[in-house]
Amino acid sequence: MEEKQQKAAGAAGLFGAAAPFLLGLVIALAFGWWLFPGLLFSEKQQPVAFSHKTHLEDAGQSCADCHFLREDGSFSGLPPTEACASCHSSAIGESRAELDYVENYVERGKEVPWLVHQKQPDNVFFSHAAHSQAFCATCHVEFDPEDEENKPDALCSVCHLPVEELDKQVAYRENRLTGYSKTTMKMARCESCHANPNHLGATNSNNACYTCHK
Amino acid sequence: MGFDRRAFLKFAGGAGAGIAVSPLPWKLLDDVSIWSQNWSWIPANPRGETTYELTTSKLCPSACGLKVRLTGGMPVRALGNPDHPLGGGLSALAAAEVQLMHSPARVKTPLRRDSGGNFIPIGWEEAEEALAGGLDAAGADIACVSGDETGSGLDVLSAFLGERGSDKLYLMPSEAQSAARAWRLMGGSGQPGYDLESSDFILAVGANVLESWGTFIRNRRIFAAARPHGEEPERGFVYAGPVQNNSAAVADSWIPLKPGSELIFILGLAAILTQRGLSAAAPDFASFREMLAGFDPQKVYALTGVSPQTLQNTAAALLRADRPLVLAGSECNQGGGAAQILAALALNLLLGGRCLRDIPLARPVLPAAEGRQEVQNRDLVAYMAQKPNPQALILYEANPVYALPDPESAAVALRNTPFKVSFSAFMDESSALCDLVLPMPLGLERLDDIESPYGCGKVFYALSRRTLETADTRHGMDILLRLSAGRGGLPASYREVLEARSAALGADHSALEAGEVFEAKAPAPGRLMLLPEILNRAAESKNSVISLALAPVQKIALGTAQTGIPPFNVKTIRGNELSGAEMSIFINSATAYSRGLREGDRVRLAGKHGEIRARVLIFEGIVPDAVGVPMGFGHTALDVFSRNKGANATELFTATPEAGTGFTLWNQIDVSIVKI
Amino acid sequence: MSAEHKEFRIKWGMVIDLDKCTGCGACMVACQAENNLAPTPDASNKKKVMNWLVVYELTNGKAFPAHEVAYLPRPCQQCGTQPCASVCPVVATEKNEEGGIVSQIYPRCIGCRYCMAACPYHARYFNWLDPVWPEGLDKVISPDVSVRPRGVVEKCSFCHHRFMKAKDKARVEKRDIFELEDGEYVTACAEACPNGAIAFGDLLNPGHKVSALAESPHAFRLLARLGTDPQVYYLSRRDWVRAQGDNRLAEEITRG
Amino acid sequence: MLKGKFLPLDSELLPEGSERCSLSKFILWLLPIGLLLLWGLYAAFKVLANGLGVTGLDDYFGFGLWITFDLAVIALGAGAFFTGLLRYILNIDPLKNIINLAVIVGFICYSGAMLILVLDIGQPLRAWFGYWHANVHSMLTEVIFCITCYCAVLVIEYIPLILEQRQLDRIPLIRHLAHNFHVFMPLFAGIGAFLSTFHQGSLGGMYGVMFGRPYAFREGFFIWPWTFFLFVLSAVGSGPLFTVLIASLMEKITGRKLVSWEVKSIMGKIAGTMLSVYIVFKLLDTWWWMTDTLPSRAGLTFDQMFYGWIYGKWLMFLEIIICGLLPCVILLKKSLRERVRLFYAAALLDCLGIVINRYVMTVQTLAQPVLPFDSWATYVPNWVEWAASILVIAYGAFLLSLSYRYLPIFPQEAALNRDCGSLGLPGRGS
């Protein structure tokens, strides 16, 4: 009899009794899903307000003027100040960004500490030579730089930001714990191709650890 | 509803459940492990374009060729350069050369000793003033010791001293000087050259040709070229010496010799060869042959421990060869005396001398400078024995307090000198006793030159080049030239000296600066004397009875007297060579048995002046009644990689004048061993 | 649970001529500089000293004057049947890539050291503490090999990064990355040795000299009878040196 | 309730019908244990903060005291699963009187081993890779899976014991829960037995598969080397007796009878039986290893597996004959088994033998030079390794003390001590 009463009371007050639980649940979910990701990443701005669009469209440069494969197979990455200074030995425009750049880096002979969105840690070896447009385009026509349908850097944009369209820089978000860029490739992304059986025969690559680690 | 304990528990439960199904714990779990891959206190890889610069090692005595790898303009590796005439691989020292630029033993700023006896860092202006003041006060009573024997720095030093009225320029003792002395006595003009490339049989007597003798990286490349992997060698190689050292390990055979008996062994071979009818076109050949009659195999056996049979076999092997070459030297590249080199050169002449060269040395490019021969002819050890007390002493990349025989008396001499300055890249034992220490750039940080290092077979000239700008070093030669301010016709900068040297040799200086090497064929020697009288007198002095002979062993992995043990090379020391601070000396089991010693026993080895302590290692690759002592340990200055490791073998060295040649030598050292 | 044996089109191998090795240590120094092994002020406890490549001293055990000495450089043997990779619980080490180099992935390794226990060659080393470079020396870290933190195992990789770079060079020159010329990819130790004692190349490529050398009657491999199938070969014309390549029973020795 | 006695301050928390010492005495007892715990925690902190360089381990002995300790406690903790198997699956009813203790000892052993493992791996932050990036070919993967899962099973088995605590038991929900747990115990016992068999075996397999280490390498059946089976058998041949030894030690300390001789004797008989099976196979295995595996696979002889005093043959003799055959004989022959001193001697020898076995398989395996030009290496653990191992022992003592004082883990306790109680013998310890 007593037991029955208890049960009834429990059923009636179910919501009331569970309220603290639900409250905790909701707060935790909100924290875990919304607040936490924001807290985990810090936001940084590039040291120089560089515009790819200006360089491509106004100055008529091509991507490969700065980003190219060297003869030894390594990738040039970002140009050193010395290379930029071949045009910007003194300011050629009027923008504040350029003036700052010339003053702070060219004149002082310093390298710009660019924040690289796709920066990989020391233990990763990424070969730009192995992921060349010409090679990937043998199967993936959408990456063929010769094809006028495609953007010239369609393959690059698979991993990198579509910088040629960007006039303004995208904020760099860094994981406070790991120091990784939020937009960099993690291993699962590499494996989406490397572990894909279709790739194995065609590309001479495989998913062995040493394919990408050093 | 109050927020009681029960409610709180429910809240906590809900929060726990919520967190668990949110990304938080899982993302953190993942990120924490990623964090562990990139700890901020672990050094990061440099990034940047890889470039290479060719140069020649000024630091390694082999003068091997280097290909320096730079990343983003920063040198990161020293690689070998197979196209370099003295290159084709690396010595254990050259392999560490880039790292040595950042060694903790480097002198980072000019240092002056204050009244309290401590070093204080000073600026360059003050340093150069102090140098000028100290030297000016000494007037003409200045002596200088140079550890660099191949560079034009010698010209500058000589001219600098000469301009001040001093001729006391000395070289740290080396094989090159003994050889030069012998060569001069025989009537040679430049320095003896050895065309190893064309020889088909090499007999190395005492000379550790594959580790430390001469241009040893080139020697090794030549050795390797004649030995295809796993096949019968195309060129014979026999090593004779007291210890089964690195050269002996790969020789076709090892002929054990009593320490210091190299001369007798060579004369024994010469005796057999003259009996077989070989002769040399020397004016004194007849008396030479006569003198050799006294070196019959039995006598040679008594003095060297080499059986008559082995002696005959070795002579036969030399006879069989078309272009044999006999190289004599001392294991540790010093103290072997001139007579044994003289004897080896004579033996080569008997054998036709087809691989001998007379390498001309460029004339001094500074009017006031002496020739290299004159400098080589001076004997630093003999000078020190006179207990001179110059008013000022310049140490130029020299560390006599560590490297001279009886280093303690060198230290005393240094202490008694009123003003002493050290031009050194490293804070070595000698620098530590100086009043002024001026940091030198290393070979990879400075423009300097290397001319025909001893052992090479051609005229050789190369420049070391600057691969890294180092902020606070200055080339000592530039300082001295600045100090001279044009007096005595001295140029303003060292570069001008080097350019003049290139011009004198007919070499393209700018190509040399880009890493190219100048080479020119050296002529065969002219008519040389065999000097039997000198040889005989030197040989007769070898009769002294030695109870336990010292057999030093040099390994280039342990660096030079200046560098100490490079940081990366500490790991190359074998476990049985050094344990903590205690090093091993080695004797064979017969020697151990006769002296009641066992492996691991702690012993005291005593020479005439000093003593060292070590542990006994039984090693069968050493002749009886001899004790092997590794060189390169026992540093008391430099850095943690060199300090507090074993004892300095030079403590045991006792220099004596060599009968006949008058040069000092220290290759027959009697030591006592006592268990402690 | 025996280790699997994979076959590859190319198989990087080393043939070390012990009759040419003087034991000078240049290979060890080059290896440390190339692969960013931190120096240590006191290296006398050899059981705690990190050295991907160790030069052992071999002796014929005879008294003077019959004594002979030889030196044996020991890199990772890159076994065909690996005692190590099969036991790793987290796939931090494997042999899975063309070339047959046994990989070691530092960010994956949890540091259980099972692989070290399993390796009979002592080719594996553990980072007992965080590596310490004396101030300034950390500036000459080489760019190609990541620096390992404490708590992970490491070993000789046959300078795998040089293989990667050689492949990239071949790629930009539009050549087959699996048909590298002899000498296009060599390890730092092979490159440093002035005696040319270490030959390196593709054991399966007849154009590479190691492929013939491995067949030499003087060739042997360390502990071959354990079934590890190493990719490192040694050469010696001296019987006593070859005899030290493996454990042999008394009756086998008398049989010769 | 016992009349005419001072009741401890925390008497309301004590199991019903039990007699416990005063709270202050109990705290006094915990004090030295706590100090040892702190010492161990300091060592653990040093390892986690600085790295394993602070231990006496080195590149030759990547495994040392800790792995030996882990393997030993996991083997000795096998009392939990094996007693559970006998009690719940095979329904050997008298074992209900010791099963609780077996579970607690098992839990201590396993959780302690995991604690040591966290210290022993170089990158504890990556410990979860064992699941996420598992290499299914590795014996260690199986060990990681089974040990953690089985540790969870032990937690589940431990929970109802905690729930039976006097005060908790008053809450109906908890009483309900505890009862339901009990209903499912056979299921967990089954899962536990399955997991345990595998990881005990895999621990042996870890060594047996090391074909580069002739001292450890064994041929086997399918993918399992003989050591797989030997480790399982040796664990069940010693674990139950370890539980008995712990029970007897507790009796000694508390001065109260906790488990009847009959139960102990049954445990002894069962363990003895398993031990005898083990020893037979161990002898066969050793013989085969000596005459076939070693010479044919490694080119080494039996004599070459031993060195000097420290790795001498006496260890093997002690392990197999003195600590194997001898306890077998004692435990299997009723007349001998019933002699208390002999029984305990046999139990101690049995456990010692298993510890030696785990030690030689770990350390001697690594000490033996496989390269012909290498030499024997020696290993001496340093204080950090000892302190961390003692940490686990202290933690075990702590947990057992609490469990004994507050949980009704010995069903026979009240009955066995009724006479003593009337004689006025106080319960001394915790």
Task: Report on the architecture of this protein.
- The complex is a heterotetramer of chains A (214), B (676), C (256) and D (430).
- By secondary structure, chain A is mainly alpha-helical.
- Chain A has a domain of 125 residues.
- In chain A, 39% of the residues lie in helices and 4% in strands.
- Chain A has 9 helices and 2 strands, in the order H-H-E-H-H-H-H-H-E-H-H.
- Chain A starts with a helix and ends in an 11-residue tail after the last helix.
- Chain B has 5 domains: 31 residues; 50 residues, N-terminal domain of TfIIb, CATH 2.20.25; 184 residues, Rossmann fold (3-Layer(aba) Sandwich), CATH 3.40.50.740; 177 residues, Dimethylsulfoxide Reductase, domain 2, CATH 3.40.228.10; 132 residues, Barwin-like endoglucanases (Beta Barrel).
- Helices cover 31% and strands 20% of the residues of chain B.
- Chain B has 22 helices and 28 strands.
- In chain B, helix 9 packs antiparallel against helix 11.
- The N and C termini of chain B lie far apart (87 Å).
- The model of chain B has no long low-confidence stretch (mean pLDDT 93).
- Chain C has 256 residues and is an alpha+beta fold.
- Chain C is built from 7 helices and 8 strands.
- The relative contact order of chain C is 0.23.
- Chain D is mainly alpha-helical.
- Chain D has one domain: Up-down Bundle (Formate dehydrogenase/DMSO reductase fold).
- In chain D, strand 1 and strand 2 form a beta hairpin.
- The longest helix of chain D is centred in the middle third of the chain and has 38 residues.
- Chain D is globular, with a radius of gyration of 22 Å.
- Chains B and C meet through strand 3, helix 7, helix 8 and strand 21 of B and helix 1, strand 2 and strand 3 of C.
Radius of gyration of chain A: 26 Å
| Assembly context of the chains | heterotetramer
Helix content of chain A: 25-40%
> Which shape of chain B, going by the Cα principal axes?
globular
Whole-number mean pLDDT of chain A: 84
Supply the helix-strand structural class of chain B.
alpha/beta
Number of contiguous helices of chain A: 9
Structural class of chain A, please? mainly alpha
CATH topology of the largest domain in chain B: Rossmann fold
Span of the ends, CA to CA of chain B: 87 Å
The neighbouring-strand order within the major sheet of chain A is: 1-2
Q: What is the averaged pLDDT score of chain B?
A: 93
Q: Classify the beta-strand content of chain B into a percent band.
A: 15-25%
CA(first)-CA(last) distance of chain A: 72 Å
The percent range for strand residues of chain A is under 5%
Q: Helical segment tally of chain B?
A: 22
Characterize the largest beta sheet of chain A: strand count, sense, and whether it forms a barrel. 2 strands, antiparallel
What is the overall silhouette of chain A? globular
Query: How many beta-strand elements of chain A?
Result: 2
- Low-pLDDT segments, ≥5 res of chain B: none
